[in-house]
Amino acid sequence: MSSKQAPEIPNRIADHGVIGDMRTLALVAIDGTIDFFCHPNIDSPTLFAGLLDPKNGGFFRLAASGGTQERKHRQMYLPDTNILITRFLDNDGIGEVCDFMPVDGSGRIVRRAKAIMGAVTFELTIAPRPDYGRRPPVIQAIEGGFTVGWEGSNEIVYFYTEMPLEIDGETVHGTARLAEGETCHVVFCPGRKDQPTVDDRYVAKASSRTRDYWHEWVQSGTYPTFWRDLVVRSALTLKLLTSSEYGSIAAAATFGLPEVIGGERNWDYRFTWVRDAAFTLYSLSRLGYYDEAEAFVHFLMVRAVETGESGLQIMYGMDGSENLPESDLDHLEGYFGSQPVRVGNEAYSQRQMDIYGEFMDAVYIASKARGKPAYSVWKKLSGILDWLCDNWQLPDKGIWESRGEPREYLSSRLMCWVALDRGLRIARDQSMPADIIRWRDQRDRIQQSILEEFWDPDIGAFTQFKGSKGLDAVVLLMPLVKFINPRDPMWTSTLKAVKRHLVHDCLVKRYINTEENHDGLEGEEGAFTICSFWYVEALARTGYVAEARLLFEKLHTYANHLGLYSEELSSAGDHLGNFPQGLTHLSLISAAIWLDRALNGDRQDPNHFEFQMLEDPDGIF
């Protein structure tokens, strides 16, 4: 397909890499197309959204053209960086496009084309569609490029390139024939004229500085012996989802990508969930990245101080905004027709009791690395825990944000236990004043509630909510958060029940949507990837190390060509839901670290036990 032609169908979710600058991200498809990009921030409207509507969403393609029909497309990251290289392989020549966003606060996207072998023709097509494709662009030629503006906004963005350009209404085309070794560039510059000047020297310097930044960041971490490359890629992806300005952490880079093709489960994940971000910090901290934990705890403490008695809501905008109203973009056809395409997320108004456990776990991690919290911070935290002592039995929407009726969910009860447990640990370890007797009493009451009210002897497992018969993969967190000994018979029985009801090969469902626990939405979602990695870690902690390793290796075959994961997977390996998904990558890191310790026999881990295959006459497998 010539780059002058608009795509007829979207690129598959899995056929993308991601670049970013800790302010926003862009998805780059394997054919050289940027078909998803929000500007200027990750939760801003899109400038390119062809992934959600090839005709009306807009795109930015730079790719080799001509050649033979056998041309192959390949992608790779420059090792230990978020600099992406897309290769075009053909018997008539080999070309490359290098994509990155400098981490200097400029908000630029740099795209550099190079003829690697033989002469290669590169074609450029830029079809900006501002404001989620709702406003027509106004394109004007300038020296060395062109500008894009749009009605209702004073903002102008700039594109600079040495290519000769042709403006065709709302689309710009360019072509360059490069001899072997020659390069040319296209640079997107937001909101201002070129400062510094965009030229070959700038591109080379920006590339070098960006590479050095990512190398230094990776080198500052501590990585496992096994699966280092997978863990590094996951860590780099999580870092891209953090905000260098606010300390917040996005759940994913995208919105509107379906959990079911053609279905209604199409959410906006470009916000900070307390749950997702706290889990992210746990994984990054295990790799030695404590600055991110400190910044996020500060972000949450500002929110907690500004809000009511309970202190937190479940999610925020990346800048801390509290209102995230949900609306539909009816003019976008959606990924392979999946509608509605939603922006905003009404779940921000839900009550989810689990967030207190995830938040306090993040504070606990930060205190272990940085010492005791300030007294003013601890006073607010103590107030939240005091409130929780009186309210932990409240029904809510659960960790999976059900749009059905409020219930007493296991996930919420478990994380309320975590909140009080971590508060007690901080008070003890950091000698902080606290109502120890009350907190301990309520923590133990929660533990008793879970063990007695959520255990179903008929199925031999802890169930999704009080009084239910269904299973929820969230039970896999029970040994991970130190609630239960992984050798406890109640736990090993639960693990076997999860295997029977939720696991298919290495893929794990969150829950089975039945009349009893209907979540208020139509359609059956795919396997939830984070649960698959939770299952691997739970197996390893229970002693099934060989099986855990096998399933971990199988899960790698579901990653895309760059080692990236979306939110969910179909049984055929198709990526579903938003991409790349932070929860998936953080759970991969946690599982890899635990397996690595198991295989290395790390006796320094305080949670270490003798790792060997358990005697299991019933056979979990």
How would you describe this structure to a colleague?
The chain folds into two domains: 16-219, putative glycoside hydrolase family protein from bacillus halodurans (Beta-galactosidase, Chain A, domain 5, Distorted Sandwich), CATH 2.70.98.50; 228-600, Glycosyltransferase (Alpha/alpha barrel). Helix content is 32%, strand content 20%. It contains 14 helices and 27 strands. The strands form seven sheets. Strands 1, 2, 3, 4, 5, 10, 14 and 15 form an eight-stranded antiparallel sheet that branches. It has an eight-stranded antiparallel sheet with strand order 6-7-8-9-16-13-12-11, covered by helices on one side. A three-stranded antiparallel sheet has the order 25-26-27. A hairpin with a 2-residue loop joins β11 (137-142) and β12. α6 (355-370) runs parallel beside α8, α8 runs antiparallel to α9 and α12 (529-542) packs antiparallel against α13 (545-556). It is globular.
